[in-house]
């Protein structure tokens, strides 16, 4: 029907397994009793002949003295050997952390740790079964820098004063997308249906874009549907994630929203009458004029249009001021999670804050009434003990494969990623055949490769985060499995996921619902005292950082690494000194920590600091 360009982002959230280890074997038992047994056997072999007995007795007496001397010498030598062994054990124990970093796969095969989850202990047998099912880990790269990071963290230096504060003075900017100065839309041009594709993050954007299009066309919006995907495998409906009545009522002054089509339209074959519009029919980032020219006539003719997919199909600019504000109103005010998700999100936040009852700046916007302390007078001021860092590690296989980069796994890794591309990104395979693409080294130099877990932990250590920092890890299946996280969990042992914080009974209602699990990550990351992303292009990270800008009042710092600048630093990993590495990383991150007003053409969901979404006291 129309021209199109597809490029949907992927992100999500899923389980993260803890690392397994195998216990050291015990040393063999001592055989010191063999000497006494030998002496006893020698005495029993003597005959009853008198002369022989006399000679034998004399010889035995002299032999006993010689053996006694040899026994004392043997004991002295054994004592020296024992002392040497003790020194060796001490040396090995002090080298344990560095040993694990340099060869995590071998380390995981020699030790066993009891994994404590919600006050329960997983048996060694169960841990060994898990270990047997895991992938063979690759040898860790950046071993030299990781060793230096390990020593730096062991020194336990004070954290930089500005580590937990925003570098931006945003006190003059206030949320005001809830303000309206227009008449309600009657929605009498027809009905718009939308089935949003992708994960929860893409669906959230599609929903708010559909609200804006409904207002542009003076149409009635049917409560959005969520497309089931073989990738996400989540059968959730809108009402399983967001509060339906709040969404409809809050936007009533803007757009007429109904829960279903009228009966007379339900029986129509929408595909047959040309009312089904897919992403292939709409140009990406389509402008309002496109919808008025091509979609409005369909509404007039058939009274209904069904958008299937609707990923990134409405431009950021140019959009009428009030419609742009409506998009912000939808994202920051109308989409409220259902109580089931809010309750579990509140548990995660509470446990990350170590059960301290203080409220964060965003709690009430994320949790509603559940943000209030259970008992009056329980509020407490922010303390170092209760703050935490949230980390979105965007290193899932889809991201890794699509990047065309190399991640230290050699030919086996490249073979696996190529097979994934053939199945999920056939267009990329064709592109490789027909065009000469940049080399892996060039891609990394330009900052086009996802940050690896090893690079992420080096960045956090260089920024000055303490080894005891509590870190909440969000993200889907990390490529390479638990072995790829060894450096991260070794240098920052207080790293947890929702699967660690929640009991099996608490997380069971969300099993097999990836979008609902992602909603829990969204709440916990957004409420964090500091948030670090590893890919600024991630839809999840964009929505989280935008929410923190809108409601944070300049008090919610977000770390947005410039991968190109970091790549220039990492390339010197074999020669650079740690002090120089620290200084360069901090400078690179500090330059991206400040928040500017929304650039033209950029998303209001990610950059809400604009007059359409927020109000400023300054002219």
UniProtKB/TrEMBL annotation:
It is found in: Membrane. It comes from the Eukaryota. The chain crosses the membrane at residues 79-99. GO terms for cellular component: membrane. Belongs to the glycosyltransferase GT106 family. Residues 28-37 have a biased composition (Polar residues). It comes from Coffea arabica (Arabian coffee). Pathway: Glycan metabolism. Residues 1-50 are annotated as: Disordered. One of its GO terms (molecular function) is glycosyltransferase activity. It holds the Pfam family O-FucT. This is O-fucosyltransferase family protein. Residues 1-15, 38-50 have a biased composition (Low complexity). Keywords: Carbohydrate metabolism, Fucose metabolism, Glycoprotein, Glycosyltransferase, Membrane, Transferase, Transmembrane, Transmembrane helix. It is a single-pass membrane protein. GO terms for biological process: fucose metabolic process. The gene is LOC113708643.
């Amino acid at each position: 029907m129309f021209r199109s360009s597809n490029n949907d982002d992927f992100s999500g959230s899923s389980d993260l397994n803890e690392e397994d280890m195998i216990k050291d074997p015990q040393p063999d038992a001592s055989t010191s009793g063999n000497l006494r047994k030998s002496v006893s056997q020698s005495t029993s072999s003597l005959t009853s002949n008198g002369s022989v007995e006399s000679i034998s007795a004399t010889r035995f007496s002299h032999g006993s003295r010689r053996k006694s001397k040899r026994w004392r010498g043997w004991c002295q030598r054994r004592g020296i050997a024992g002392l040497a062994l003790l020194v060796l054990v001490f040396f090995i124990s002090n080298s344990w952390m560095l040993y694990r970093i340099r060869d995590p796969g071998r380390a995981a095969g020699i030790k066993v740790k009891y994994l404590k989850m919600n006050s329960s202990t997983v048996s060694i047998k169960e841990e060994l079964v898990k270990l047997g099912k895991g992938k063979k880990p690759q040898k860790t790269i950046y071993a030299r820098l990781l060793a230096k990071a390990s020593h730096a963290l062991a020194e336990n230096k004070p954290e930089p004063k500005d580590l937990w504060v925003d570098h931006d003075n945003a006190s003059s900017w206030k949320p005001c997308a809830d303000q309206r100065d227009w008449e309600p839309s009657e929605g009498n041009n027809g009905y718009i249906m939308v089935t949003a594709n992708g994960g929860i993050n893409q669906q959230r954007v599609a929903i708010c874009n559909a609200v804006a299009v409904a207002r542009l066309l003076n149409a009635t919006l049917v409560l959005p549907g969520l497309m089931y995907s073989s990738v996400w495998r989540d059968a959730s409906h809108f009402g399983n994630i967001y509060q339906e009545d709040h969404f409809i009522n809050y936007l009533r002054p803007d757009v007429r929203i109904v829960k279903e089509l009228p009966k007379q339209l339900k029986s129509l074959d929408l595909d047959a009458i040309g009312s089904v519009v897919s992403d292939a029919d709409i140009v990406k980032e389509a402008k309002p004029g496109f919808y008025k020219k091509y979609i409005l006539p369909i509404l007039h003719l058939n009274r209904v249009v069904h958008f299937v997919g609707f990923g990134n199909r409405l431009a950021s600019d140019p959009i009428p001021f009030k419609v742009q504000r409506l998009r912000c109103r939808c994202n920051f005010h109308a989409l409220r999670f259902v109580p089931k998700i809010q309750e579990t999100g509140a548990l995660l936040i509470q446990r990350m804050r170590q059960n301290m009852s203080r409220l964060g700046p965003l709690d009430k916007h994320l949790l509603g009434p559940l943000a209030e302390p259970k008992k009056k007078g329980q509020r407490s001021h922010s303390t170092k003990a209760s703050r935490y860092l949230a980390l979105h590690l965007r290193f899932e296989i889809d991201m890794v494969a699509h990047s065309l980069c190399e991640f230290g796994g050699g030919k086996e890794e490249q073979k696996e990623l190529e097979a994934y591309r053939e199945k999920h990104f056939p267009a990329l395979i064709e592109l490789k055949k027909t065009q000469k693409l940049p080399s892996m080294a060039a891609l990394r130099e330009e900052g086009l490769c996802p940050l690896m877990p090893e690079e992420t932990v080096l960045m956090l250590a260089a920024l000055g985060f303490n080894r005891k920092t509590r870190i909440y890890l969000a993200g889907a299946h990390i490529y390479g499995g638990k072995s790829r996280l060894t450096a991260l969990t070794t240098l920052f042992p207080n790293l947890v996921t929702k699967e660690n914080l929640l009991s099996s009974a608490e997380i069971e209602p969300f099993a097999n619902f990836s979008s609902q699990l992602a909603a829990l990550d969204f709440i916990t990351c957004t409420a964090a005292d500091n948030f670090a992303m590893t890919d600024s292009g991630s839809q999840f990270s964009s929505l989280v950082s935008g929410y923190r800008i809108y409601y944070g009042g300049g008090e919610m710092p977000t770390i947005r690494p410039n991968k190109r600048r970091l790549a220039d630093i990492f390339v010197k990993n074999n020669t650079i000194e740690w002090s120089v590495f620290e200084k360069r990383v901090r400078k690179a991150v500090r330059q991206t920590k400040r928040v500017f007003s929304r650039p033209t053409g950029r998303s209001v969901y990610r950059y809400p600091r604009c007059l359409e979404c927020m109000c400023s006291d300054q002219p």
